[in-house]
Every structure is written in structure tokens, then in C-alpha cells.
User: Fold this.
Amino acid sequence: MPTPFTHLKIAQDLLGDDALPSLYRDLLLRQRPAFQLGSIVADARVASGDGREVTHFYAYGQPMIERPWRAMLRLHPQLQAAGDEAHLAFLAGYVAHLAADEAWALKMVRPHFWGREWPGVERRDKFFALHLILTVLDERDERALADWQAGSLRRSQPQSWLPFMPDAILSQWRDLVAGQLDPAGDSLTLEIFGQRLKMDPALVREALDDPAAMQRRLWRFIPQSLLDEVARLSYVFTRDQLAAYLTEYMPAPASV
Assistant:
């Protein structure tokens, strides 16, 4: 759903959010690289070839009968007890990713793309418009990422953190995303979306850079104010789910 850059921006905002208890923020700051990796690695299925139900714990076209992060812990109960602090921060990032995707699906994609008619618009054109709005968010969030993101992310060292995805895939995805954030790096978002859409990425870029095309293809159905509101609500939902996870699964601090 949202791209790695958007998930990293959410993670960045969570690290400085006073609405999270300081105990939780201190953990995530101490283990920032692991938290960053957790916040993006569900999308490593692009590299691993796994289905969405394997890494995101829901499938398109099916109702969500439970929170995806709770489904993950139910299906993989060994994750209910993190191995160490870094593992806990990584899982917290993964929970945040799943919560953000859940919110985006329920607040934007299902009601506004697939749940209502766009007069005169074919389903394939809706699919294209969905990737346009994801790219708008992606490029906006990439510009807002702090300079520390790439170097910090590279310091994450997974150690058998997931039973359903090997460390080699986690590390490969870490390096792919961090490389795009380097000063000499280039975003691969349009390349990846072009493959998904089965079209030349240059055509996606052309539409993004044409205000009239964006109005015709996207904004007349999904105004930018709606995008901003869904992004805001999704962030609040993500923060609340992250807090719920840590409240239930973070070990109590040792007594002084």
C-alpha cells in the first residue's frame, strides 16, 4: 500500500511524538535502526515473491476480521516474546507498518477507489489513479525524511527476527531502500510501480507532471484535502496500534 518512504516518514514522526509514552519512544530511539527496518520490511515481499497474506496478514477483496498485526502474532506465537530489545523495536516497526496499511485500505482504498463508482472510468484506470496518489504521497514524504535515515537504516542487523522471511531478504530490502536515500541514490518507486502497472514508468511520470491529467485522472474523484485527511487519520491510528502493541508486549522495566 503506502511506499517505504511513507512508512519511514511515519516512523520518523512516531519517534518524536509526545503522544506516545516516553518509555516507548526511548525504546524506539535506542533501537532506531531496528525500528526503521521493521517499518518497511513487510514490503520486501516484492523481492521475496510472497503473497500479501504471508507478510501483511490480509488479502485484497476479503474482509479484515482482525487487526493484521494481531493475526501475525496469532499465526506466529513465537513473536509474542521478542528475543531482545532490538527485536522488540523491529516488531514494533512491523506493527506500525501493518497498522498504516490497514488504515489506508479501510479509509481510502476500499471506500473511495473500489467501493464507489467513478463515472466513465474503467477499473484499470482506477488502479492507475491509485498508484498516482501513492506516488504523490511517496514523493512528498521522501522530501521530508531526515538526513539520518539512510545511515541509521543500514545499521540494522536482523537476527532471525521473522519466522516467515529470512534475514537475507530483510537485509536485501534494507539495502535497496537505503540506497535510494543516499545523496547519489535515485528513487525506484516509479520503476516498481511501472512493473506493477505493466507500463513504461515514463508514462506515470508524465501524468504526475501534468496538472490537467492529474485533475482528470485523480483529483476530481479524490481531492487533495481527502488525501491529507486520510493521511492524518492513518497516522493517528498507527500510533494508537503501536501503543497498544507495546503496552501488551513490552516487558515491564526492571525495578530500581
About this structure: The chain has one domain: 4-249. DSSP finds 14 helices and no strands in the chain. Residues 4-249 form one domain.
